[in-house]
Amino acid sequence: MTQDAMTSPEAEQTDEQRTGTGPTPGTDGLADRTAESEAETVVDRTIIEARDLDVYYGDDQALQGIDMEIPEKQVTALIGPSGCGKSTFLRSINRMNDLIDIARVEGDLYFRGKNVYDEDVDPVALRRKIGMVFQSPNPFPKSIRENVAYGLKVQGKDENVDEKVRTALERAALLDEVEDQLDESGLDLSGGQQQRLCIARAIAPDPEVILMDEPASALDPVATSKIEDLIEDLSEEYTVVIVTHNMQQAARISDKTAVFLTGGELVEFDDTNKIFENPENDRVEDYITGKFG
Ligand SMILES: Nc1ncnc2c1ncn2[C@@H]1O[C@H](COP(=O)(O)OP(=O)(O)OP(=O)(O)O)[C@@H](O)[C@H]1O
């Protein structure tokens, strides 16, 4: 998927708006971060948990029985050969697969202990807590300021928009470069700057999780390096889950690595050092050492 459906007007229109009254606070069925984080401060706390998750496209099964616990405020990389289901898993976390007619999900996917597939979860609200950045930088054909302010306006967060825009640009390591051109088109920026603008757009509504689907694959090495530094910085504040084809990138920036292999199986999930230095599974070792894939 190349379209930034997470933050696009189409995504807001396509999704059915549902108002939930679940067991957790709020009207979207989802827990409130402040209340939870005050209650508990545990290192390596799980924020996303998949339990026996299967995803099908029509009759074809793309993911098989995935079990995974993703820790809060760390970088988790999803790696594996083409077609093994990495993007499908990423999209299942914030229900982007809902937008694909033939996609069907079975099993459980919890965000802070709440199953995101429960009836009372509003997928649009879920995507505000779990933002997404795609492979190709795709700013709207609008000013830099409007690009970042988009998510805030949709939510009716109209107060202090300029300040919030600046904060998001600063967190995305872009403010210094664009401070004097906030009213110029986002499309006039370089590819790397456009991708950081898309990251600023994703973080402006203050999500808890940022999903990234090969965010640097269309960029040159210098721009890639900036995005990698940024991802490491972002993980102090956010949970980052990133799909990458680049094993060196996964090794450089992630804390945990999940290795998917053909058939949509999660073969190994562990600390990144362990996966790259001493994997348990022979097929993972073969993949890491380039014997296949
Ligand atoms: N929208 C879709 N409709 C039908 N089948 C799909 C769709 N998206 C993915 N698939 C299929 O599901 C399987 C997993 O695809 P997915 O894109 O999740 O894998 P991936 O590991 O992210 O691949 P890549 O690294 O090439 O992006 C593949 O067989 C793919 O053809």
TrEMBL record:
Residues 30-40 have a biased composition (Basic and acidic residues). One of its GO terms (cellular component) is membrane. GO terms for molecular function: ATP binding; ATP hydrolysis activity; phosphate transmembrane transporter activity. Residues 1-40 are annotated as: Disordered. It comes from the Archaea. One of its GO terms (biological process) is phosphate ion transmembrane transport. CDD domains: ABC_PstB_phosphate_transporter. Residues 19-29 have a biased composition (Low complexity). InterPro entries: AAA+_ATPase (IPR003593), ABC_transporter-like_ATP-bd (IPR003439), ABC_transporter-like_CS (IPR017871), P-loop_NTPase (IPR027417), PstB-like (IPR005670). This is Phosphate ABC transporter ATP-binding protein, PhoT family. It comes from Natrinema salifodinae.
